[in-house]
Write a structure and sequence with these properties.
This protein is mainly β and 75 residues long. The chain has one domain. 0% of the residues lie in helices and 49% in strands. Strands 2, 3, 5, 6 and 7 form a 5-stranded antiparallel beta sheet that branches. Strands 1-4 form a two-stranded antiparallel sheet. The protein is elongated.
């Protein structure tokens, strides 16, 4: 994903669920500086998960997130 920001970022998080439990994988982005952009490639663990979404948070506690995406398991 390509992310652009104004304030330095704190972290990105992939949130997913399997219908019983919610899982979170956090990616530290504390090395960012003001007014930046980055191409971030993620390979989250999604085996057995039914949905996933992505969040990005900055140092001022502003967040951006996607709507949940329903996942289909390969046959």
């Amino acid at each position: 994903m390509k992310i652009d920001w104004t304030f330095p970022l704190r972290f990105a998080e992939v949130i997913s669920g399997d219908g019983r439990q919610v899982y979170r994988e956090r990616i530290d982005l504390a090395d960012t500086t003001p007014f930046g952009e980055r191409l971030l490639t993620l390979k989250p663990r999604l085996e057995g998960r039914k949905w996933a979404r992505l969040e990005v948070w900055d140092v001022a506690a502003n967040g951006a997130f996607t709507q949940p995406v329903w996942l289909e398991q390969a046959p």
